[in-house]
Amino acid sequence: MNTDVEFTESNQIKPMSGMAVTAFVMTILFCIPVLPLVGLLLGLGALGRTSTDGPFRGRPLAIIAIILGLLFTAGQTYTTVKFVEVGGMVADSIMVVVTGPDDAMEGAFKGDLKQTNDWWLVGQKPSAARTEAFVSEARRRFGEFKSAVPDDGGQPPFGQSSFSMPLKFVFSNGSYDGTVSFQAFTGDGGGLPENGRLLGIVKITVVDSDGTEVVWDAADAGLSTPVDSSGEAPDETTGKPAAEKSAEKMDDQSPPSDP
Questions:
Q1: Strand order in the sheet with 213-217
Q2: I need a surface site. Which of 21, 76, 209, 255 has the fewest CB within 10 A?
Q3: Tell me: the pLDDT tens digits for 169-202?
Q4: How far is residue 157 CA from its own chain's centroid?
């Protein structure tokens, strides 16, 4: 319905353009989505009808509505895009807790480092040798990896920047307790994380039936190292048990036998 009233020569003062007024009101209600865009369109429609020789007055309102409509529409579009982007990061961060440990362990045991490293916090990804040592010791103790699921009663305290969750690790030899430690991305270097996740894994611990902890973390994180049955850490470069590495070293140093 046309809200404008046609001007006739018998009128001494042009009537106010209802379209211009409506456009102005809609643009100042910028807190309501889409209204600034509607106000912008109405302002453009009222602009020609409120010209010097037009039938209505209210051109300043139409111009203001156009300017505000452009500003607020651009602002709402930017805010919506950023909201969707941040919302996606939050959803991905929740998935780090729900499926991250299982997917990271699966990738490690099948040798897919890309799948594995994708779930770790930026700057806290274990080296290939570190991952190989963990898989070697875990496979020797527990067998092949099956699954990792959150333990009953474990609730992630999302309000904290770092926390640990109890998990049940299922291997071919049985089910074992363990924990997974998570940490929020601090952004010390500026910007957002490369993988788009605001949360990442920093440590995975599986506890053997004898109480020994087999730990998987970044080599430079200053955390504990996976241990073999001798109670010593495996060689970080080769991932071999310390005893085996020591035996190889002794063989290399032994004098040659007489012909």
A1: 145-150, 162-171, 174-184, 199-207, 213-217
A2: 255
A3: 999 999 999 999 998 876 655 555 555 567 889 9
A4: 16
Backbone angles phi, psi at 220, to 5 degrees: -100, 15
Instruction: Please report, as a single letter, which amino acid is at residue 185.
Output: F
Helix axes 35-49, 59-98, angle to 10 degrees: 160
The pTM score is 0.55
With tokens 């089910």, the residue in question is 175
- In angstroms, the CA 18 to CA 57 distance is 9
Q: How many helices (H) and strands (E) does the chain have?
A: 7, 5
In degrees rounded to 5, what are phi and psi of residue 202? -125, -15
Q: What is the largest CA-CA distance in the chain?
A: 129
From first CA to last CA, the distance across the chain in angstroms is 111
How many Å apart are CA 212 and CA 118, to the nearest integer?
27
Helix (H, G, I), strand (E, B) or coil at 195: coil
Bridge partners (DSSP) listed for residue 205 = 179, 215
